[in-house]
């Protein structure tokens, strides 16, 4: 085992290296465990976000009416035992809807 301290990564800030150098071995182990847990959490969140983005892209229609924003999604509303498609989107604090057509019962 070498008696020389490890060389820090070049992309680690001098301030962070100096801070870590002041920590005790116990504190460094705490930081290492936290950093590993945080990295795993962020990796999971990125993976979930990417899956969500892919699913949204797959579900997003390509043809929007002129008065419906591209952020709108299609929802189904049931009225008097009949089902209808509506474009729906958020506009500030309210939710806007526009009728699209009846749901095909064969779908």
Structural class of the secondary structure composition?
A: alpha+beta
Low-confidence regions: none
* Sequence of secondary-structure elements: HHEEE
Strand content: 15-25%
C-alpha end-to-end distance: 68 Å
Largest sheet: 3 strands, antiparallel
What is the β-strand count? 3
User: Helical proportion?
Assistant: 40-55%
Task: Identify the strand order in the major beta sheet.
Answer: 1-2-3
Cα gyration radius (Å)? 26 Å
Number of domains: 2
The general outline is: rod-shaped
Number of helices: 2
How would you state the average pLDDT, rounded? Answer: 81
Any overview of this molecule?
The protein is of the alpha+beta class and 107 residues long. It folds into two domains: 14-58; 62-102, no CATH class. It has two helices and three strands, in the order H-H-E-E-E. Strands 1-2-3 form a three-stranded antiparallel sheet, with no helix packed on it.
């Amino acid at each position: 085992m070498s008696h020389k301290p490890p060389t820090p990564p070049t992309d680690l800030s001098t301030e962070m290296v100096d801070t870590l150098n002041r920590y005790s071995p116990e504190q460094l182990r705490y930081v290492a465990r936290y950093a590993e847990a945080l990295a795993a959490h962020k990796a999971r969140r990125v993976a979930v976000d990417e899956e969500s983005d892919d699913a949204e892209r797959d579900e997003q229609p390509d043809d929007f009416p002129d008065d419906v924003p591209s952020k709108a999604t299609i929802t189904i509303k049931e009225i008097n035992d009949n089902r209808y498609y509506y474009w729906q989107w958020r506009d500030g604090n309210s939710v806007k809807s526009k009728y699209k057509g009846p749901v095909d019962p064969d779908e």
